Amino acid sequence: MSLFAARRLVKRFGGLTATDHVSIEVEAEEVHALIGPNGAGKSTLVNLISGLLQPDEGTVELDGVDLTPLPSYQRVRKGLSRCFQVTSIFPGATVRDNLLLAAQAHSGSSFRFMAPRNAEAALQDRAHELAVRVGLDKEYDRIAGALPHGAQRKLDVALALAADPKLLLLDEPMAGMGPEDSARMVELIQLLRTDMAILLIEHDMNAVFQLADRISVLVYGRVLTSGTAADIKGNAEVQSVYLGTEVHA
Length: 249
Ligand SMILES: Nc1ncnc2c1ncn2[C@@H]1O[C@H](COP(=O)(O)OP(=O)(O)OP(=O)(O)O)[C@@H](O)[C@H]1O
What we know:
By secondary structure, the protein is α/β, with parallel strands linked by helices.
């Protein structure tokens, strides 16, 4: 059984079927990328998976738990974390305080039996560990909103990691990045994949081909095909979908 499975998801907006019986699975430690031209329904699918939208049909399951009836925040508790295309950081606070808040939000009852001073120390450790993990330890005391774009995206990833996800949903993590920052983000995702499964929605095809074990191509709300990078590169139907369109996915 796969770690994660979305099964036959359907979402209609009036007469438009934005998600048309989409099934997608992610195995433990797998990076599964989702690509598709503009308007293919990627954002809608991500919202259905993370719980910002409710499907008209279909189910979302993680590690044997049916997440479909749960709101976003409960899905996070069950192990499904999402990074946002629009970052979710507090721009006026330091990296440290952003991470402390996230660590605290996800600490649940873990510090309940500790003396307050020990609980505070454990939170500080956790926040610093998250900064180290994404390579932001040198920026720890800087104001988040003043960081370069690439560093802000890393912080966004660190905030999602605070929940200790089993599945990390990365929604266009390379958006707006230059080649150097993109390369760093690829390195970071390579590190993370040893600890969690990743569903990656990304327009940067270089990054997708480097990272993905499996790629699914979404067109008009349906999965056109799924396969390895080599399968997808050699697929005539995929090529024709992108031909003459704004090829950035
Ligand atoms: N809330 C909504 N109400 C009505 N139609 C919507 C809504 N959200 C999305 N759609 C429509 O559903 C289709 C899929 O949109 P979606 O944003 O999911 O595509 P996408 O693949 O994420 O595109 P992009 O890469 O441009 O963000 C589009 O035709 C869009 O206009």
